[in-house]
Amino acid sequence: MSFKINLDQDVKNWLEKKRKDVLTISRMDITGCCVAHEDIDVNYRAPKFGNYEKIDYDGLEIYVQKNLNFKDNRVDISLTGFGPFKHIFVDGLRRFSS
Question: What is the CATH number of domain 4-91?
Answer without folding.
Answer: 2.60.300
